[in-house]
Amino acid sequence: MRKMIFFLLVAAQLVSAQELALVRKDERFGYINKTGDFVIQPKYKVAKNFSDGLAAFEDNGKWGYINMKGDVVIPATFDEAKYFDSGISVVAKDKKWFYINKKGETVTPPPTDKVYDFENGLAWIKRDGKVGIINSKMEVVIEPKYEAIKSFEGGFARVKNTERWGIIDKTGKVIVDVIYDDIGDYYQGVAWAKSGGNFGLVNGSKFTAIDGVTKIWDFSDGMTYAKKGEKIGFIDTKGNWVIEPKFDKAKAFNKGLAPVFVGKKWGYINDKGAIVIEPKYDDAEVFSNDGLAPVKDDKNWGFINDSGKMIIPAQYQISAGGLLSIFKSDEKGFVNGIARVKNEKKWGFIKTDGQVLGGQWFENAELFRK
After folding, report:
1. Cα 82 to the center of its chain, rounded Å
2. d(Cα 262, Cα 306) in Å, to the nearest integer?
3. What is the mean predicted confidence (pLDDT) over 343-365?
4. Phi and psi at residue 28, in whole multiples of 5°?
5. How distant is the alpha carbon of residue 248 from its chain centre?
């Protein structure tokens, strides 16, 4: 008996841990796993991605939620339904938006002029034109006192007051004073910022302008790209030019390589600025953690490895998100060993060896979600 209970618990954990993808087949939506098998058969006229273990589905004009086994856990009684996060979702009934928990029970937030979606356990509240933050326990974390608060990235968010920008942490502590004309995401204690006509880097209360720079992008992989004059190069978190501005366009580094635009083609450089994959592509994206990068040859996309070898022929279209996707974390190319691609008006998934997941193509396919 104990063994049976143990195996049931393990099975339940596996179900909750797996990722499923929303796909449409024969004009109905269902969900497949990462072997390409249907876990939930395509039977819904309209459905949404999984998020926080539940997915919204429509039945006769009303919305409810299913779990990852396809069981209805919240009956379809709502006029609209959004995505769960940290056990809370936003739904609508009789033209009124409100919060529910995973039991379908109404959850009352602190007073707010508008109901916002939760994101990583936090949501905005709004009073008298000012916004603050609440947590999933419906506690006020940050009182409404800002004109705008952007999404938290790595535990930090950009905030705006009196047309000036700064950065706070999840407790509301001001990390970067709200005094800048514009500001980027906080990364390892540094953010790019604009002060007056100058672009530079800010660390706490210290702003250091970088001479001649007219634009800086957000940091990743220890550096970022910046524009000086008409050319783009790369700077480190101290504002030093690691790679002098000499490229027409550029994208972020990952796995030690970055796409750059030279002349009329895209190639890749290493962290020394040397071209290691010749510029010969019509477009190119950042390398994924799987070690492959999408590159465009004429009208189609394929995938190369870090030596520039074409591993998957250029015969697909790619996209960060699908028809129903709202997730900011959507990436082009491979994500955890699987890439979402389009082939002759059909959508599906390929693995890093180029094989089509489950040998199936669909009318629509979304990225895998938990």
Report:
1. 17
2. 19
3. 96
4. -130, 145
5. 26
Q: Span 270-278, mean pLDDT? A: 97
Residue where the block lists tokens 């706070």 = 168
- One-letter amino acid for residue 271 of the chain: D
CA torsion 320-321-323-328 (nearest 10°) is -140
User: Strands 223-228, 231-236: parallel, antiparallel or unpaired by DSSP?
Assistant: antiparallel
User: What value does the mean pLDDT of the chain take?
Assistant: 92
Average pLDDT over residues 47-71: 98
Decide if 107 contacts 97 (C-beta within 8 A): no
What pLDDT, on the 0 to 100 scale, is given for residue 326?
38
pLDDT 10s digits, 168-220? 999 999 999 999 999 999 999 999 999 999 999 998 789 999 999 999 999 98
Bin 60: left if φ > 0, else alpha if -120 < ψ < 50, else beta. left
Q: Find out whether 178 and 208 touch, Cβ atoms under 8 Å.
A: no
CA 137 vs CA 88, 133, 225, 251: distances in Å = 9, 12, 40, 39
Q: How far apart are CA 368 and CA 86, in angstroms?
A: 18
Find all residues with CB under 8 Å of 227, minimum gap 6, and list them.
213, 214, 215, 216, 245
Backbone angles phi, psi at 32, to 5 degrees: -115, 160
